[in-house]
Write a structure and sequence with these properties.
With 216 residues, this protein is mostly beta strands. It folds into two domains: 8-94, Pnp Oxidase, Chain A, CATH 2.30.110; 101-211, predicted glycosyltransferase like domains (Thrombin, subunit H). The protein contains one helix and 15 strands, in the order βββββββββββββββα.
């Protein structure tokens, strides 16, 4: 595992409710410690305690790395950061390049042309690289560029994440009737193009949680 400076980290604390926060890596000294920003929530730094155990999760794009550390020191001036003990053991879980997860997320789709009107749609499955969209009207033809906006919530904080990404239409087909609906439904397969690094991180986190959630 080679962590680049600035990589996003998920910090999971052993507090009631499995408190989870997002931070980033400032740097590290191999075999000694990690230097990590103190996470911020609602504009305020999250209180961190020296000696507290923390589980760190990192998404690399092809794997999910998980390891445990101890908060060795907390520094509040001149910047908010902390030292974490260097991990002794690192668990690596392969993340399929494009795991497809069944979802039901409301979305807004807009063609990438002047004066295009938004169309309501539903994402029915989702991956880090693309999605399948059901809609009441045709969204375009293969090769067309569109803009897609949708939101989801990540556990355990229930934080809402909004994604607005460009995409390319890869496939189109007509769907069958949906419940009481009798008008034609259209299915559109898209490939995301131009998603920001932060959007990719949060989407990977959402997909990982969705894949590993055991139904009650």
């Amino acid at each position: 595992m080679k962590l680049p400076v600035g990589v996003r980290l998920q910090l999971i604390l052993g507090r009631p409710g499995q408190a989870s926060y997002f931070s980033s890596l400032i740097g590290y000294v191999a075999g000694e410690y990690l230097l990590v920003k103190i996470p911020v929530e609602n504009g305020l730094t999250v209180p961190m305690q020296e000696g507290e155990r923390v589980t760190v999760r990192v998404f690399s794009g092809v794997s999910v790395y998980t390891f445990s550390c101890t908060i060795e020191s907390v520094l509040l001036a001149p910047r908010f950061y902390m030292h974490l003990s260097f991990p002794q053991e690192i668990e690596s879980t392969p993340l399929r390049q494009a795991p497809r997860v069944k979802v039901n997320l409301q979305a807004e789709v807009r063609a990438r042309v002047d004066n295009a009107q938004p169309a309501a749609a539903t994402l029915t499955d989702l991956s880090i690289s693309g999605a399948f969209i059901a809609s009441g009207s045709e969204l375009g033809v293969p090769g067309d560029r569109i803009s897609v906006s949708f939101a989801f919530r990540v556990k355990p904080t229930n934080q809402e994440v909004r994604i607005q990404a460009d995409a390319i239409i890869r496939s189109c087909r007509q769907l069958g009737a949906n419940g009481k609906r009798t008008e034609p439904r259209h299915g559109t397969g898209i490939h995301f193009d131009g998603m920001t690094e932060n959007e990719q991180f949060m989407l990977q986190h959402y997909l990982y949680e969705a894949e590993n959630t055991v139904p009650p």
